[in-house]
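User: Just a sanity check before I run the rest of the batch. Below are the structure tokens for the first item. I only need the designed sequence back.
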């Protein structure tokens, strides 16, 4: 492949991060999640519990299917058909969230739609991530991964800014510009905020065009139209059977299982926490999201350079420690006090402190996720890369229900959103301890 062809392929691959990030930024964290908790349901505590259970259920589906589908893709040599399929689920699930009207009696259907799109996004990510080793050598993929993740955060920021300026309305029925939602959308029916679903779907459709134009697969060696189930599952079973002898890879899968679950919990409930504990509006949470995503973009890019120079393991360790400290700070913060120190009524210190924490989460989270996928490339068998990313997804989702369900259960019984997020602390500690058995260059160097 020519240099210009490879550059186009790398650019096209990075555009997936730009195209898909709004599902996390707009739907999961900063716009739809808080809207669901504050308007679709009128009980924030019950909403946080149901949201957690729904995220956990979708995580279970992903955990079961990810390594199996990865094995099929490696056996057939085909990834692109799967990306098309799950892109369709992404678009369908996100666009249909327009139906989430305020004050719904039964939110089950809305949660099913949200989970459908989330599953599509996660599976599409698995197959695109598996293409990373083909984009450069070991020293280069750290920069490529970091730059791609930075593009994703940048895409999330741009999408969030557009939503806040022109569409998402506050309690007064106006956007951040102080105007009514664009396109004549009815603020009283929260149509501006509800449009986040179709907006996310349209964003993905438009910005995936470069991916499908420039990213091409190597023609598979197999000529079979259909890959036998036994062949795919046999390869997967062989990989699983060898895991106990591959201590570094197994330790990394376990470590990432816990620390990524904790990070996902922080992302998922950050906006809901700010809305319920600090009383922030959707627009306040959106501004907070812009700050977090901006630091995420900047530090994902910086982290990619650090990854290429020092390797992914030091980057991962620094990020886990940082997020551990931040999670402790979140549990210690309320409108009335910080770490038990009472504040004057009406104090803005909790708001300022939470903005700092949000910026730090964005920075450390961006670095951590970019470095994590390059670490997976170092640990995995080059011949079974999609399967490895499937196992990586399994590791991330095998306990993906754990953080949301623990947060849901602790919130329900403590009747406190602040105490409810405490389980992430233990998950970060487990991830940090298990990283000590991970070899920086893996077992296939």
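Assistant: Here's the designed sequence for the first item:
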């Amino acid at each position: 492949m020519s240099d210009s062809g490879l550059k186009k392929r790398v650019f096209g691959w990075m555009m997936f991060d730009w195209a898909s990030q709004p599902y996390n930024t707009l739907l999961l964290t900063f716009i739809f999640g808080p809207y669901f908790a504050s308007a679709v349901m009128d009980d924030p505590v019950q909403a946080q519990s149901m949201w957690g259970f729904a995220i956990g259920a979708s995580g279970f589906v992903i955990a079961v299917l990810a390594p199996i589908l990865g094995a099929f893709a490696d056996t057939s040599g085909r990834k692109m058909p799967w990306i098309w399929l799950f892109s369709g689920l992404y678009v369908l699930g996100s666009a249909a969230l327009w139906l989430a009207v305020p004050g719904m009696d039964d939110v089950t259907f809305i949660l099913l739609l949200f989970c459908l799109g989330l599953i599509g996004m996660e599976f599409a990510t698995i197959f695109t991530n598996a293409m990373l080793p083909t984009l450069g050598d070991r020293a280069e993929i750290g920069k490529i991964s970091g730059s791609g993740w930075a593009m994703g955060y940048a895409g999330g920021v741009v999408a969030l800014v557009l939503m806040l300026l022109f569409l998402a309305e506050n309690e007064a029925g106006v956007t951040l510009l102080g105007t009514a939602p664009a396109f004549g959308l009815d603020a009283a029916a929260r149509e501006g905020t509800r449009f986040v679903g179709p907006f996310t779907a349209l964003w993905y459709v438009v910005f995936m065009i470069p991916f499908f134009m420039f990213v091409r697969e190597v023609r598979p060696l197999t000529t079979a139209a259909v890959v036998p189930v036994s062949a795919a599952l046999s390869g997967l079973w062989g990989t699983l059977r060898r895991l106990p002898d591959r201590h570094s890879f197994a330790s990394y899968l376990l470590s990432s299982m816990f620390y990524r679950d904790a990070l996902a919990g922080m992302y998922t409930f950050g906006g809901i926490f700010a809305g319920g504990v600090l009383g922030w509006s959707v627009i306040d949470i959106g501004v907070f999201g812009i700050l977090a995503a901006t630091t995420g973009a900047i530090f994902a890019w910086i982290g990619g350079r650090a990854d290429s120079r020092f390797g992914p393991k030091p980057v991962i360790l620094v990020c886990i420690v940082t997020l551990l400290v931040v999670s402790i700070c979140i549990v210690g913060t309320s409108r009335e006090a910080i770490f038990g120190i009472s504040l004057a009524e009406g104090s803005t210190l909790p708001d300022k402190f939470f903005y700092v924490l949000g910026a730090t989460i964005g920075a450390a989270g961006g670095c951590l996720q970019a470095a994590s996928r390059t670490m997976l490339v170092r640990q995995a068998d080059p011949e079974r890369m999609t399967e490895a990313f499937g196992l990586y997804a399994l590791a991330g989702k095998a306990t993906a229900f754990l953080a949301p369900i623990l947060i849901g259960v602790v919130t329900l019984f403590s009747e406190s959103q602040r105490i409810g997020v405490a389980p992430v602390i233990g998950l970060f500690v487990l991830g940090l301890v298990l990283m000590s058995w991970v070899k920086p260059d893996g077992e296939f160097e």
